[in-house]
Write a structure and sequence with these properties.
This protein has 314 residues and is α/β, with parallel strands linked by helices. It has two domains: 190 residues, inorganic pyrophosphatase (n-terminal core); 116 residues, Diaminopimelate Epimerase, Chain A, domain 1 (Roll), CATH 3.10.310. Helices cover 37% and strands 18% of the residues. The protein contains eleven helices and eleven strands. A six-stranded mixed β-sheet has the order 6-7-8-9-11-10, sandwiched between helices. α4 packs antiparallel against α5. It is globular, with a radius of gyration of 19 Å. 46% of the residues are buried. The chain binds adenosine monophosphate and manganese (II) ion (2 copies). The site of one manganese (II) ion (MN) has 5 residues, from α2. One manganese (II) ion binds next to loops.
Length: 314
C-alpha cells in the first residue's frame, strides 16, 4: 500500500524499537541511508539496530557508526515493533526477513518497487534513498549532525555517479548543498569512495580484456569469472568504463560471484534496462538496473544478450 512521507514519519514516531535494513550487495545509498536513519532515530530516543545480510565493500567502512551494523546469524530473532526497509523492495533482504514479524515500512526510489504486502513510500524521481531520508529528517524534527550528513551525502554521491547521471536534479543538488552546510566534506568522501585495492584494479583490467560487442556495437558487455571476482570486494564503476563507448546504448557486466550465481549490472543511454532486469527477476531504474542469474557464466551471457536484443529491437 502506498503512503505519504508524513504517514511514514507517523509510523516511525509510534514505534519503540526499530530494525532497519537495506538490500544485499549493499551500495553507498543502502549503507548511507540506513546509517543516517539509525542515528536520527537514536537522537530521538528510539532504539534502532541495522541488520544487513551481506558483506559491505571496504570503501564504506569509514562511514560514521559503520561498526554498529550487524549481519544476522542463523536462526536469530530480533525484538522490534517496526522494520524499516530502505533502498529496495522486500525481496532482496536475505535472512533479515526472518529476524522479526514486525510490520514493514518500506522507503525507496526504485521504479520497479510495487510495494506488495508492505506500507511503501516511494519517490521514483528521488536520485537516492538518502534524498528521501533527508526529507524524512524534517518530518521527524531530527537534527542533521555532521555524521548524519556524511552518510546521506555518500548515498547521493554514489547513486548519481557524483552528480553526473540523469537522476541528478536541482533538488538533489539543493540537498547536497544543505548537507555541506551541515558539515560534510565532499573531497574527503570522494577520496574514501574512489580508493581501490590493487586486486580491484587488476580485476578491472581483466574485465576490460573480456569486452565483447553485440548488435552492431550498440551493446557492450564484460564478464568476470569467479576466480578473478573472488580476489576483491567491489566492481563499482567498472561498467562505466564501457558505457562511455560512443556507439553503445546498453552496457553490461556479469560477475560470477559464486559457481552458478551471476550478478548482472546494466547501464543504458536510452533503453529502459529496469524492464529487462525485471523480466529476469531483478529490478532497478531506467538507466541502471540489475539482476542475479543462477546459471553458469556462459548461460548467463546468452540469456542476457538475448533479453537485451529483444529490448533494443522494440
Ligand atoms: P548495480 O548495477 O548493482 O549498481 O545496480 C543498479 C541498480 O539496479 C541499483 O539501483 C540496484 O539497486 C538495482 N538492482 C541491482 N540488482 C538488482 C536485483 N537483483 N533486483 C532488483 N534491483 C536490482
Ligand atoms: Mn542501492
Ligand atoms: Mn539507491
Amino acid at each position: 500500500m502506498l503512503i505519504t512521507l508524513k504517514e511514514a514519519a507517523e509510523k516511525i514516531k509510534a514505534a519503540n524499537k526499530i530494525l532497519i535494513t537495506a538490500h544485499v550487495q549493499p551500495d553507498g545509498d543502502a549503507i548511507g541511508s540506513t546509517l543516517a536513519l539509525m542515528q536520527m532515530l537514536q537522537s530521538l530516543g528510539k532504539p534502532a539496530q541495522i541488520f544487513i545480510d551481506d558483506t559491505v565493500r571496504k570503501n564504506l567502512h569509514a562511514l560514521p557508526h559503520f561498526e554498529e551494523i550487524r549481519r544476522p546469524v542463523d536462526g536469530e530473532k530480533f525484538d522490534a515493533d517496526l522494520m524499516i526497509v530502505l533502498d529496495t523492495s522486500i525481496d532482496r533482504l536475505g535472512n533479515v526477513r526472518k529476524l522479526t514479524d514486525a510490520p514493514i515500512l518500506n522507503i525507496d526510489h526504485h521504479v520497479t518497487n510495487s510495494g506488495e504486502g508492505v506500507e511503501l513510500y516511494v519517490e521514483k524521481k528521488a536520485a537516492a534513498t538518502c534524498e528521501i531520508v533527508f526529507k524524512l529528517a524534517r518530518e521527524l524534527n531530527a537534527t542533521i549532525t555532521p555524521d548524519i550528513a556524511t552518510c546521506l551525502y555518500t548515498g547521493l554521491a554514489t547513486d548519481t555517479g557524483f552528480f553526473q547521471f540523469s537522476n541528478t536534479r536541482a533538488e538533489t543538488l539543493a540537498v547536497a548543498s544543505e548537507l555541506i552546510r551541515c558539515g560534510v566534506s565532499p573531497h574527503f568522501i570522494s577520496e574514501q569512495l574512489e580508493s581501490k585495492s590493487l586486486a580491484e584494479v587488476r580485476g578491472l583490467s581483466a574485465a576490460l580484456n573480456s569486452l565483447k560487442m553485440f548488435y552492431g556495437d550498440k551493446v557492450a558487455g564484460m564478464i568476470l569469472d569467479h576466480a578473478t571476482a573472488k580476489t576483491f570486494d567491489s566492481t563499482e564503476g567498472f561498467i562505466d568504463e564501457i558505457r562511455v563507448i560512443e556507439t553503445v546504448d546498453v552496457a553490461f557486466l556479469i560477475t560470477e560471484k559464486a559457481p552458478n550465481f551471476c550478478r548482472v549490472s546494466m547501464r543504458s543511454k536510452g533503453v529502459d534496462v529496469s524492464k529487462i532486469a525485471a523480466r529476469l527477476g531483478g529490478g532497478g531504474h531506467i538507466r541502471a538496473a540489475g539482476c542475479t542469474l543462477k546459471t553458469t557464466l556462459d548461460e548467463a551471457e546468452k540469456i542476457l544478450v538475448a533479453a537485451i536484443g529483444n529490448a533494443i529491437r522494440n
